[in-house]
Structures are given as structure tokens and as C-alpha cells.
Amino acid sequence: MKKLVLPVLLAVAIGFGFAQVTRGVDENRQQRFEYATIRWGGRDHTHVIRPGSHVEFVGDQLTRLSKPDRADDRAFYMNAVLNAMAKEGYEFAGTSGDDFIVKRSAP
Predict the structure, then answer these.
(1) For the chain, domain boundaries
(2) CB-based contacts of 40: which residues, under 8 Å, 6+ apart?
(3) Which residues are paired to 96 by β-bridges?
(4) Inter-residue contact 105 to 88 (CB < 8 Å)
(5) What are the percentages of helix, strand and coil residues in the chain, rounded to 5?
């Protein structure tokens, strides 16, 4: 019986330590995101609301693109802005009316 006490206590101590380590890992795995909103306002007034409430008007950049004659304005220009945001690490998260919401992992 005395021979079993030490191994049982050792197993309990190891199990308790393992439980503490795994609980700490789960708490640190919480992934955080930052979001940006792309708001369609026509080619000249489209803007991006970035994290931290910084607003960037992108109409000047959109006027430099040559849109094919029969292409829809909104679809063409919003696609260009979405692709530019994807190059910055953002991915599509959803839509709301004329808004496109994009997200990326927060630093």
C-alpha cells in the first residue's frame, strides 16, 4: 500500500499541473479582429472607415481606373476597393446596405 501512495500523489500533481497549463493556453487563444467598413457613395465619394475611426476617401484613386463601358459602376469600383483591402490582410466579413465590412487579425 505504501508503494502506491507516491505514484498516486505524483500522478495527481502532474494532472493538476497539466490542467493549469491547458486552461492558460485556452485563455490566450482568444483571437481578436479589427474591422473596416467600405461605404459606397458613388465613384467620387466612396470611403473606407478604418479601425480607430480614421476615414479615408478613395474617390481620387478610383478615378484613375478605367472602367469598361458596360460594367456596373458600384460593382466595379467596390471590387477594386475590396481587392486593395485584401492586399492589406483584410477579408470579407459581410454587407449591410451599401456597406461592405472587412476584417483582419488585430496585432
Answers:
(1) 1-30, 33-105
(2) 46, 74, 77, 78, 98, 99, 100
(3) 99
(4) no
(5) 45, 25, 30
Contact 47, 3 (CB under 8 A): no
CA dist 72 → 20, 25, 26, 43, 75 (Å): 57, 48, 47, 11, 5
Say whether pTM exceeds 0.90.
no
**Cα 31 off chain centre by:** 9
| Span 17-59, pLDDT tens digits | 665 555 555 556 678 999 999 999 999 999 999 999 999 999 9
Strand, helix or coil for residue 89: coil
Lookup: cell for 78: 467596390
